[in-house]
Amino acid sequence: LQPPVAKQVVLAIDPGFKSGCKVAVLDGHGNLLENAVIHPHAPQHRRHEAKLALKDLIGKHHVKVVAIGNGTACRETEE
Q1: Between the CA of residue 46 and those of 3, 42, 76, 79, what are the distances in Å?
Q2: 38-68 tens-digit pLDDT
Q3: What's phi and psi for 10, nearest 5 deg?
């Protein structure tokens, strides 16, 4: 558990294998700026596309903090 991060743009990732990783970019007030689904793991194995999508979101919204959920596929997503 992480205490609130005030006034920071956050990229939040909900890891998953089959249905992909859900990604959300939140502004400093917790409002949704953009969301996406990436598929870096089996069975899709679209890791390169996932890296590009994350890079684009981070650059576009000037993300300062990344939060990764601790459920299924969390360690693989962190890599």
Answers
A1: 32, 8, 13, 14
A2: 999 999 999 999 999 999 999 999 999 999 9
A3: -115, 135
The closest of 61, 59, 77, 78 to 20, measured between CA atoms, is 77
Q: Phi, psi (5° rounding) for residue 77?
A: -70, -40
Q: Is 44 exposed, middle or buried (0-12, 13-18, 19+ CB in 10 A)?
A: middle
Q: Which amino acid is at 43?
A: P
Cα 78 to the chain's mean position, in Å? 10
Residue 4 clears pLDDT 90, i.e. is over it: no
